Structure formats: C-alpha cells, structure tokens
C-alpha cells in the first residue's frame, strides 16, 4: 500500500495508479492528492502500449462526446437571444480593455461554471477566477473578483501567514512558510501547440485588469501559484 506502507495492496486507483489496501487508505490518498478516482479517458498512451481496449475506450469516449454535443445543441439556452447578447456584450467590453475574451459553446464545463459579469455602472469586470497551487495539489474557485483588485490582495486569504484561513493555511503551508519573494503567479498562454506550452508571469503588485491586458482568456482566468525555489516543468515565455 502506497498510503500506509503496512498492508498488502488490494486496489489500484484508475486515475493516478496508486496502490491501496483498504477503503480508508483509498480515501486518504484521494484527499492528499486531490484525486477523484475516475480514469482519465484522454490520458496519453504510446503506440507501443496501445491495445484493443484503448481503441474501444476511445470509441466509447467519442460516442459520449457526440451525445453530449447533441444534448447541448438542443438546450434552450443555446438559442436564447438574451444569452447571445450577454456574451457578445461581455466580449465587446473585454476587447475595449485590450483583453481577447473567448467563450465556449453551451455544454462545456467552463461555460457552465463561468460567472464573470460586467457592471456598467461601475465600469468594472467582476471575474470568475480559479487559483491553482500545484505544489500542494490544491485549487480554489473565486467568484465576483473585481478587476481593480491586486493579485497580492487576491492571494492574501490563501498564503498570507496572518490573514489566511487556518484550514487553508495548513493545506498550503509550503506557500505560507516561504517568503513572498519566492511566490510566482503564472498564467498559461492560449493558442500554442500542445508540445510547446508556455506561461506568462504576472505582476502581483498590479491589478487583475492590468495583468490580463493583451492576453487571450478562454471563459475565465486560471492562475497558477508556484514557488521559484521548487523545480517544476512550467516554462515561462522567453526562458
């Protein structure tokens, strides 16, 4: 068992392939690694390891995609003029702020999740935002984040030793124990080849709006909070 290292392993997680001996250890490994236990149907399989089972799995996956796309096309919101006007207005407002905001069709998870709005009275975006802390395998979703809020203030409830929530602080202790100068905020650059993933480094002292200017955003921003002292495979553009 890769969790307790005491008993003989009986189960193997379909998602991360970790071995476990009991239901208790299964639950512990899911909590520690933020693993949902569901097999990744789109995980890479090399040609040498590709079998008839993989082919059948891909075929079923494509059938599921077809059914989901068909159901989405029949969804009433897909044909709602109000929804289309709202999305057009949102993209137009973002374009005026030099942000290339792109939306996905109805049925996509990010489209359903997105709660981003624009307040015409305040002339301000309230963003749906996702924070990912890869060193702790943790992620958090924020709603109605004003665009004039600095990234440093956005992160305070998570990695600030004084202002962060005790439960969150304990989970992200590797971040809270590190000096602020070691914290880096990255955002993935969209529209690049799969084998050439790069990230933009953002300025924590500047507002969310300033950091998003000149960038492509698909539905809502996802920010990766990393530590420069820890080795990772996230390559910043230009490095």
TrEMBL record:
Pfam families assigned to the protein according to its UniProt record, in alphabetical order: BCD1, zf-HIT
CDD domains per record: zf-HIT_BCD1 (cd23023)
InterPro entries, per the entry: BCD1, BCD1_alpha/beta, Znf_HIT
UniProt cross-references to Gene3D superfamilies, sorted A to Z: 3.30.60.190
Molecular function terms from GO: zinc ion binding
GO BP: any one term: snoRNA localization
HIT-type domain: residues covered: 1-35
GO cellular component: nucleus; pre-snoRNP complex
Keywords associated with the record: Isopeptide bond, Metal-binding, Phosphoprotein, Ribosome biogenesis, Ubl conjugation, Zinc, Zinc-finger
Xref: PROSITE patterns: ZF_HIT
Family note: Belongs to the BCD1 family.
Complexes and interactors: Interacts with FBL, SNU13, NOP58, NUFIP1, RUVBL1, RUVBL2 and TAF9. Interacts (via HIT-type zinc finger) with the RUVBL1/RUVBL2 complex in the presence of ADP.
PANTHER family in the record: BOX C_D SNORNA PROTEIN 1, BOX C_D SNORNA PROTEIN 1-RELATED
Function recorded in the entry: Required for box C/D snoRNAs accumulation involved in snoRNA processing, snoRNA transport to the nucleolus and ribosome biogenesis.
Protein name from the UniProt record: Box C/D snoRNA protein 1
UniProt gene name: Znhit6
């Amino acid at each position: 068992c890769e969790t307790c290292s005491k008993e003989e392993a009986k189960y193997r997680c379909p998602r991360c392939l970790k071995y476990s001996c009991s239901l208790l250890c299964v639950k512990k490994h899911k909590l520690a690694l933020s693993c949902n236990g569901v097999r990744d149907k789109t995980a890479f399989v090399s040609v040498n390891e590709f079998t008839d089972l993989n082919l059948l799995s891909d075929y079923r996956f494509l059938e599921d995609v077809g059914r989901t796309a068909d159901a989405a096309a029949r969804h009433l919101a897909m044909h709602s003029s109000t929804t289309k006007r709202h999305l057009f207005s949102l993209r137009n407002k973002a374009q005026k702020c030099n942000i290339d905001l792109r939306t996905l069709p109805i049925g996509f998870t990010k489209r359903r999740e997105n709660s981003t709005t624009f307040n015409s009275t305040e002339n301000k975006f309230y963003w749906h935002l996702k924070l990912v802390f890869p060193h702790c395998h943790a992620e958090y979703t924020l709603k109605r984040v004003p665009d004039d809020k600095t990234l440093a203030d956005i992160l305070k409830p998570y990695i600030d030793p004084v202002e962060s929530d005790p439960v969150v602080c304990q989970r992200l202790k590797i971040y809270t124990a590190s000096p602020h100068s070691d914290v880096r905020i990255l955002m993935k650059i969209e529209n690049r080849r799969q084998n050439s993933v790069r990230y933009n480094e953002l300025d924590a002292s500047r507002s969310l709006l300033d950091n998003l200017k000149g960038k492509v955003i698909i539905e809502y921003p996802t920010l990766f909070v990393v530590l420069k002292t820890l080795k990772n495979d996230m390559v910043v553009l230009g490095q």
